[in-house]
Amino acid sequence: MKTKLLLLGSALAALGCDGTQYVNADTVALIMTNDTTGVERVNRCHYVPVLLGSQLKARYVVEDELRVTITLTRDDLHLLFEEAGEPVESLTLPSQQFADEAREVAESPPPGFTVELASPCTPKDF
């Protein structure tokens, strides 16, 4: 009887542990390039949140008074551009658009800049 229980326990454990199981979160890179100099002012990769209600928010200094804030949720990606503390432009896209390989160029970025969103990318720990 004890042997049968051990065999049953081993069989059940083998079924449940067939390798590493984890969620592979989608990623999206925010890339901002100065059109005049060709210099990338922002190039950062972000995980798209997996859990309902989760939010990732990051803010970057682009140049002088220009700032960009990226807000990612499971459903949406939102960019907000601010100059001297005042909103100048925004962009909202569905996060699912970046589940596979994708590249999106903003149609109306702040003047003098090219704004791209690309996936996949590899986030770095800073």
Number of helices: 1
Which structural class best describes the helix and strand composition? mainly beta
Name the quaternary structure.
single chain
**Helix coverage percent of residues?**
10-25%
Instruction: Describe the sheet with the most strands.
Output: 4 strands, antiparallel
- Could you give the count of β-strands? 8
Strand content: over 45%
Report on this structure.
With 126 residues, this protein is mostly beta strands. It has one domain. 12% of the residues lie in helices and 48% in strands. It contains one helix and eight strands, in the order αββββββββ. The chain has one helix spanning 2-16, and strands at 27-34, 40-47, 55-63, 66-73, 76-83, 86-94, 102-105, 113-119. The strands form two sheets. The protein has a four-stranded antiparallel sheet with strand order 2-1-8-7, with no helix packed on it. A four-stranded antiparallel sheet has the order 3-4-5-6, with no helix packed on it. Strand 4 and strand 5 form a beta hairpin. The mean pLDDT is 87.
